[in-house]
Design goal:
With about 140 residues, the protein is an alpha+beta fold. It contains 5 helices and 4 strands; from the N terminus they run αβαββαααβ. It has one domain: Alpha-Beta Plaits.
């Protein structure tokens, strides 16, 4: 069984900073949702009755948007996934999301904001696996 990836590591954070991305960064998020949200790590955020992973993710997005906007970021795309057109037929991602930030530093400031972190339990409850790929906008790959 493939391990789940839910949080960045110190090594991946250091690698992001070491890339030296100057200017905007777009974070490509691929998310696999749980059928039923698991609030065991954030019981204080749990609704009175069980909800789906999709509903918990909606709560996460609602909580996150003010902090994202305050940091100068934007949700460029929030899309429902489905079967791959090119890719493994047995792999699925329920949600794809593109988040644009003015810089890696503004992304780090957003992601470490204590008020934002209060609601991070909705994300943890919602997802069973994820990928987060920082993208540097370029005019040409050889440039």
């Amino acid at each position: 069984m493939t391990p789940a990836y839910l949080e960045p590591t110190q090594e991946s954070g250091r690698a992001l900073l070491m890339r030296g991305i100057a200017g905007p960064v777009v974070m490509l998020n691929l998310i696999r949702l749980r059928d039923v949200a698991d609030y065991s790590e954030a019981p204080e955020l749990a609704p009175a009755t069980p909800i789906s992973g999709a509903q918990a993710f909606d709560l996460y997005i609602a909580h996150t948007m003010p902090f994202l906007k305050d940091s100068g970021g934007e949700l460029a795309l929030l899309g429902r996934g489905g079967p791959f057109f090119i890719g493994p037929p047995d792999e699925r991602w329920d949600v794809a999301m593109l988040v644009r930030q003015g810089s890696v530093q503004s992304f780090v400031a957003f992601a470490s904001n204590p008020a934002y972190l209060v609601g991070l339990g909705h994300r943890t409850a919602a997802i069973s696996d994820s990928r987060l790929l920082p993208l540097e906008e370029v005019a040409a790959l050889s440039g």
